[in-house]
Specification:
The structure holds 2 protein chains of 2 kinds. Chain A is mainly α. Chain A is built from 7 helices and 4 strands; from the N terminus they run H-H-H-E-E-E-E-H-H-H-H. In chain B, helix 2 (73-106) runs antiparallel to helix 8. Classes of the chains: A mainly alpha, B alpha+beta.
């Protein structure tokens, strides 16, 4: 150790004080940011790990937003399907009424008028749009109606493709259901008809004057309507199941986010009590060093020369 | 009596000299590089006592026999080496810290993640103009991040080169000064104050030189030194004991960046610098920055290629195939070194301009500007703006005839920019829309992917595909005409510009296949972006590669900082050891002063006594 009365001794003492100052400043920075790792060199592995976690968190947030939008769309779909289901049940009631022989032609005409109204209402519900203005039942169609009448006035599905999907975990979930899946489609060869065609046919059947033909037609209509009720129930179950999957995914994202925050905190956060104790110790050391430096450098043989 | 007077007077003179030197020590107690001096006192020989000369009883007294500097060459040498080692690591750490802070602030990883997250938001609302604009904004941010960081790195490398040049100049200045000191030392009498001062200067110069480059010093007569760069017999001699020093310089080499050479003016010889000194630190820092630039360019290239491929494979809101998202080339202007004018050159590149790989030259003629390809194969002349190969040059005032500019195409991170794409031009939808009949036996759908090389002889979609027999399907146009009969067993079928395969369904299953039209709400292609994000290249996903580059940078810096800390400790220790010998300790000087003062007074007393003796004798005579 060099004597304090020499230049190098003095410089050495000052340097030690400066080094202490630096340590205190670094400690203070860590305490004020409450973070242990503020730049890659502090801990390269932890920094890279933290960057990855932060990125996964941000991606999870984006996924969460997408899932919320998809949930809203599924909820709207369910509301529309519920409305159509009620219409269908009412139409079935009317069909049962019309099938009994006690109803006269005038009443049947009224029933037929109501069925026509119900069909219009069902078509209206089938045109429901989501928050972004896309038809709910149009598949990947973003504009225009989901159904439009053809030359014979039969509503034909105008959509195409699949409903927009959402990434949930490892798989993609369709956020909705297409019109044909929910309401069926028309195919004369395969003897399939859509809900709207069935309602038109019911209207026609109710106004059929010949009782024998009417009886046969009404029986067919009831079977068809039952088929549509079943299909609609399946569609609602599908939509409900998709919603449930998204809900589960939202929950998983929340849990994951919590885990990630915990991991991030373990990687980057400062052990506050330890840091403060260390800071206190450093301050004490600095004070002692300053005091002793002042005392020692005040000692000089020159004061004794007279 | 005369002897006594003479003894007293030489004694007083000798101690006067010793006191002077002590005073000098005290005065220079705080002078860096000052080495503590001491006067060597010698007895004056009395002369030969021969047969005719009477043997003298008293001596002839004392005389100062020159000044010695209390220095230890070995300790000073190790202090020098340790200081050089520390300077190298400290310099490297300093530049690496700047590199790291640039990399952290560029936030490349965050910007790339921002683009991918904007892609997720786009998938959630593919028809929303806001989501599309935000996606383009994020893409622009990412490109700007890459570009800005590339510029930062280029500036950093240029800064290091400048620092290297000035360090090399410092070395040359020091070697020149050392050669002059050598000359002075040869002329100066050893043991004098002048010589001691020169030796102090020499040691200070050597210390400064050693903090720049590792040197080995051999000391000759009178303290004249010869200095070699590095150690060993093969090391280059930069300061000979006699004669002029050899200069060093910095030379730009293609590909390898700046390089240190010996004797740049006459016979440039590349130097392998020993790993010590500030210059070595600068060379290492330059290497690290070059590596970081290469990493950054590679990542930018990968990023642009991945995103461009992805975006080109989708369909935008107008029903058109997607276009590449990023342009990857730009032009860099370098004004000629001899330009006398101050004209500014403004460049704009047309979208999709194909630049001439050899670059361009812009020359100011007597009144007009000429822009030409570097091989002269095409050129335009005029007062400006000049248009060539999709480049538009606007020229500011202040050009002087003869001024020239060099324009070089730059790719990599510096050339990355978002192409002019409107919100509707974002390709969020898949190229093909596929759906299945309601009554199908299987929920499976045909798979389709674009392939420009495919040239199946079928009229283009929309198609209806119907399975007519197990493993066979008919392709029908909208009018119901059968276009072709194809296998439906999952095998690949060639279509016009795409390939597709059909699932093996039951007879009667139907599918529809169409090119996605305008205003599709399909988000399938936006969802594919998540796959691009997760696609692992040779060093992981795009973002993982960036993280790894950051971690490498951080590890290099923290290593260097640790080494620098250790080197600082060694430097302090060796410096202390050297200072313990050569430094001035004021307390010791105080004690010395007291001792010499007493001796001086005693010698004065001898003179007084001699005088008293004279007086006694004179008294007798009176």
């Amino acid at each position: 150790m060099n004597p304090v009365s020499s230049r190098s001794g003095h410089l050495g003492a000052v340097m030690r004080l400066t080094a202490l100052d630096e340590q205190i400043s670094r400690q203070q920075q860590q305490i004020s940011t409450a973070r242990r790792v503020t730049r890659p060199a502090d801990d390269p592995v932890a920094f890279a790990r933290a960057a990855t976690i932060r990125r996964v968190q941000a991606a999870g947030d984006a996924d969460g937003r997408a899932i919320q939008a998809a949930e809203r769309r599924l909820a709207s779909t369910d509301v529309a399907l519920d409305g159509i289901n009620n219409i269908l049940l009412r139409a079935r009631d009317l069909a049962l009424q019309g099938a009994t022989g006690t109803v006269n032609a005038q009443d049947r005409a009224l029933l037929a008028r109501e069925v026509a109204e119900l069909r219009a209402a069902a078509l209206g519900l089938a045109e429901t749009r989501d928050a972004d203005g896309r038809p709910l039942f149009g598949g990947s169609q973003s504009s225009g109606p989901a159904y439009a009448p053809d030359a014979n006035g039969v509503p034909v599905w105008q959509g195409s493709g699949q409903p927009p999907a959402v990434q949930a975990g490892g798989s993609q979930i369709a956020a909705g259901i297409t019109g044909p899946e929910a309401f069926g489609d028309d195919d004369a060869l395969a003897e399939r008809e859509s809900l709207f065609t069935s309602l038109s046919a019911l209207e026609t059947a109710l106004t059929e004057p010949d009782p024998v033909l009417r009886g046969e037609a009404m029986a067919t209509r009831l079977t068809r309507l039952d088929g549509h009720v079943d299909r609609l129930a399946t569609a609602r179950a599908t939509v409900g199941a998709r919603g449930a999957r998204l809900e589960a995914e939202t929950e998983r994202l929340a849990t994951t986010r919590l885990d990630q925050s915990r991991a991030l905190s373990a990687l980057e956060d400062l052990d506050m009590p330890e840091a403060i104790a260390r800071m206190q110790r450093l301050l004490t050391v600095l004070e002692a060093a300053q005091a002793s430096f002042a005392r020692v450098s005040a000692l000089s043989l020159w004061d004794q020369l007279r | 009596m005369m002897d006594l007077l003479a003894l007293g007077s030489v004694g007083v003179r000798a101690f006067q000299a010793a006191l002077n030197i002590t005073g000098e020590n005290v005065a220079n107690a705080d002078t860096p590089g000052y080495v503590r001096r001491e006067v060597q006192l010698r007895t004056i020989p009395t002369g030969p006592g021969g047969p005719i000369q009477k043997e003298s009883f008293s001596g002839a007294g004392v005389r100062p026999d020159g000044i010695t500097r209390s220095s230890d060459a070995l300790k000073i040498n190790s202090a020098r080496i340790a200081a050089g080692d520390h300077a190298r690591l400290e310099t490297r750490a300093d530049w690496l810290r700047r590199l790291e802070s640039l990399a952290v602030n560029a936030e490349i990883g965050t910007r790339m993640a921002g683009l991918f997250d904007a892609g997720s938001d786009l998938a959630a609302a593919p028809t929303s103009v806001a989501a599309r604009s935000l996606f383009l904004g994020a893409a622009d941010q990412a490109a700007a991040g890459f570009r800005g960081h590339a510029d930062d790195l280029e500036r950093l490398e240029a800064d290091i080169t400048t620092a290297t040049r000035s360090a090399a100049e410092e070395v040359n200045g020091l070697t020149r000064a050392l050669a002059r000191v050598n000359e002075e030392l040869r002329r100066t009498l050893a043991g004098g104050t002048t010589a001691a001062g020169l030796l102090d200067t020499r040691d200070r110069l050597l210390g400064d030189l050693a903090s720049l480059v590792r040197i080995s010093v051999s000391e000759g007569e009178k303290g004249v030194v010869s200095v070699r760069l590095g150690s060993g017999a093969a090391a280059a001699l930069i300061v000979p004991a006699v004669g002029n020093p050899v200069r060093i310089g910095v030379q730009d080499t293609a590909g390898a960046g700046a390089e240190i050479v010996l004797d740049p003016g006459h016979d440039p010889t590349p130097l392998r610098l020993p790993a010590s000194g500030r210059l070595a630190g600068l060379v290492e820092a330059a290497r690290a920055v070059r590596a970081a630039r290469a990493d950054h360019d590679a990542l930018a290239g990968r990023f642009a290629a991945a995103l461009n491929d992805w975006h080109s494979a989708g369909t935008d809101a107008l029903g058109q195939p997607g276009t590449p998202l990023f342009a990857t080339e730009t032009l860099k202007v370098r004004a000629g070194l001899a330009n006398a004018g101050t004209a500014a050159v403004d460049i704009s590149l047309a979208d999709g301009a194909s630049l001439f790989p050899g670059g361009y030259r812009l020359i100011r003629g007597a009144s007009d500007f000429t822009l030409e390809r570097s091989d002269g194969s095409a050129s335009v002349t005029g007062p400006g703006p000049l248009i060539l190969d999709g480049i538009t040059l606007r020229l500011g005032p202040g050009a002087v005839p003869g001024d020239a500019w060099d324009l070089q195409p730059a790719s990599g991170a510096a050339g990355l920019s978002l192409r002019p794409i409107t919100a509707a031009g974002v390709a969020a939808a898949r190229r093909f829309t596929v759906d299945a009949g309601v009554a199908n036996s299987t929920p499976a759908l045909p798979t389709v992917f674009a392939d420009p090389t495919a040239a199946g002889l079928i009229a283009p979609p929309p198609w209806t595909i119907q399975i007519t027999a197990p493993g066979t399907a008919d392709i029908l146009d909208p009018a119901g005409t059968v276009l072709a009969s194809v296998p439906a067993d999952g095998s690949l079928i060639e279509g016009p510009g795409f390939r597709f395969s059909l699932p093996a369904g039951a007879v009667g299953d139907r599918f529809r296949l169409a090119l996605t039209g305008p205003a599709s709400a399909d988000n399938g292609h936006a969802l594919v972006l998540a796959g691009v994000r997760a696609l692992a290249g040779p060093d992981g996903t795009l973002e993982a590669a960036q993280d790894a580059a950051m971690a490498r940078m951080g590890a290099a810096l923290s290593d260097t900082e640790r080494l620098a800390e250790a080197a600082a400790a060694v430097k302090d220790d060796t410096q202390r050891a050297a200072d313990l010998v050569s430094g001035v300790d004021l307390n010791r000087e105080a004690a010395e002063l007291t001792r010499l003062q007493v001796a001086y007074r005693a010698n004065a007393q001898v003179i007084a006594t001699a005088r008293a003796l004279f007086d006694t004798i004179f008294g007798l005579a009176a």
